[in-house]
Write a structure and sequence with these properties.
The complex is a heterodimer of chains A (114) and B (112).
Chain A lengths: L3 E4 L2 E4 L5 E7 L6 E7 L6 E7 L5 E2 L8 E7 L2 E6 L8 E8 L6 E2 L3 E5 L1
Parallel strand pairs in A: 2-11
Antiparallel strand pairs in A: 1-3, 3-8, 4-5, 4-9, 5-6, 7-8, 9-10, 9-11
Chain B lengths: L3 E2 L5 E4 L4 E7 L6 E7 L6 E6 L3 E5 L2 E6 L4 E6 L8 E8 L8 E2 L3 E6 L1
Parallel strand pairs in B: 2-11
Antiparallel strand pairs in B: 1-3, 3-8, 4-5, 4-9, 6-7, 7-8, 9-10, 9-11
Classes of the chains: A mainly beta (114), B mainly beta (112).
Chain lengths: 114, 112
Amino acid sequence: GAVVSQHPSWVICKSGTSVKIECRSLDFQATTMFWYRQFPKQSLMLMATSNEGSKATYEQGVEKDKFLINHASLTLSTLTVTSAHPEDSSFYICSASRGRETQYFGPGTRLLVL
Amino acid sequence: QKEVEQNSGPLSVPEGAIASLNCTYSDRGSQSFFWYRQYSGKSPELIMFIYSNGDKEDGRFTAQLNKASQYVSLLIRDSQPSDSATYLCAVNKGGGADGLTFGKGTHLIIQP
C-alpha cells in the first residue's frame, strides 16, 4: 500500500509556456500533499504544502503566482508551473501522507524548459 | 533557519561491513526523523523513521536518535552493493502532516 504516482514523468517545454504536473495517491486518501523540487546535486527543497479543499501554504521564496497548486480531492494534487523559464528546469517530486504517518513520495517529474 | 547537515561523502565501505551515516539538525523543535535512500535519477524511498531517543532496528538497518545532541544516525549492517546510493536525512515537527527538511545527503559506495 501507499503508492503515489506522478504524471508526466518527463516534460520538455518552450520558455513562456505553462506545465501541469499531477500527483495521485493510488491506494489511500491523502490528508496532506507536499511538493518538493530538487536541482542537480542538491537536496530536496519543500515548495509547498497542500490540504484538500484549502489553499496551499508556500515556503519562503517560492512564488505562489508562478507555482499554482490545486488539491481538488483527497487523492489528487496538481502543480502548474506558469510561464516556465529555463531556471525552472528541475526534478519536481510530490509526496502524500495520511495523517500521523510519514510521507510517501511519487516517482518525480523531470521538467526541462528550453 | 532550519538546517540538516550531512557529510556529502563519498563514503566507501567494503561489502559485508557496517556503514555508518550521520546527521545533525539545528531545530530543537524537531520531533520526527527520517532516513531516505535515493538512487541516481529516482525519487527518495523511505528506509525508516524514528521519533524517540535511542535505537530502532529494522532488518539490517538501525536508526539512532539523540535529541540532546541533535544527532541522528543510520547503521547498515552486512552492506551490499545494492545499498550504494545517496542517503538523505530528513526532519520535521509533525510526522506525516508537516513538510520535511532534508540534508544534502551522503553518497555511499559499497565496494564488492
